[in-house]
Amino acid sequence: MNLLDAPFSTLHIDRRVEGNLDPSEVHERQRQLDQVIRAVGLAKGVSYADAYALVADGAREAADAGRPVTVRGALQAMGADPEGVGQQLRALDAATAQVEKTLEQARPPQLETDTAGRVLLDQKYDGRPKALSADGVVLDEADREDRLRRARRLNPSAYDGEQGRRRWELEDSLHLRAGLDVLKSGELARGDELAGTQAAGHAHQLSQQIELDARTAREVRQLDAQSAEIAQKRNSLQESGLRFLDAPKPKAGKSEKKARRKRLVTALEAHGYDDATIDAYVRLDSRISKRVARTGMTRGDALYAEAEGAPMPPKTLGEVTQAVTRETNRITQAKAPDPAPDSPVQRFELENADLHSRILKYAQDHGLDYQQAVERVVSGKAIR
What we know:
384 residues; 4 domains
């Protein structure tokens, strides 16, 4: 029977009707309920009492909700995983089968006994007396000595010495005359005891292994849940980051820069600053904007850098490219120079038109605009 789908009422026995049930049925129900409670405790990592309370509370909640009051329904009502409990039930059943097999293999052969558990003499078994007198005395001397050794092995203090020998021979002959082998009875009892001890040790080892496996399974489930949560957060952050990177960034065009400068000038004028102060503020704002664009620092950090007199970072490649492009466009769109130019720069451009590309590269490499690069070449400061 699948205990998960068994009605809880078939496992939980009402004390008022327990007396009306067969004792073997009561024992089997109690064993099955014990297996269920142990499996819940292993799956949830709680004590036996807490596991019993969890199942009982779940059964009541399932009944109140009108659902079938099975072990599965009780577990689901309390938020427990029935499949995890089922896995532990299978592990416990497998361990029980192994312990029963160990006990069966370790137990001595079972013989017919009377109601008191004493072995009946009228059957074949190892260690049975070979020949007896009418009074139950063992006739074979070697057989008699062997039975004495076996008796002393079972109870050394009772049959030690000559007096113990006489006591044993009297007890043995009385039982043999009555058709009972008290020596074999004691050996079977001792064998059953040793078999029980061996089976109990095996059961303890299996129980420890089941608890270890259950704890490992709980830790693995916990780690899996934490890993899933971390992965979900990581994916969420990555998606947010991608959305941020993919979002179009507004560019500060000329109109926006003019509007910003206008707002700054308007605010300064409203506070009564003169034109020279306003012009200084505008230049400072322009330098802060450049520093922010070139370094990526905040405007506050850029302001501190200006106040401390930090050198302006070199122009970015984009700024140089833009400057060179503007200068190239200016030269391309400019009118033809006068035949006799007055400016040394104009004269240099006319005489060295083939160096135009080299000047552009020089300006880009040294962070200069085109005019500055030409002036350096004219003045001889440039490395040709």
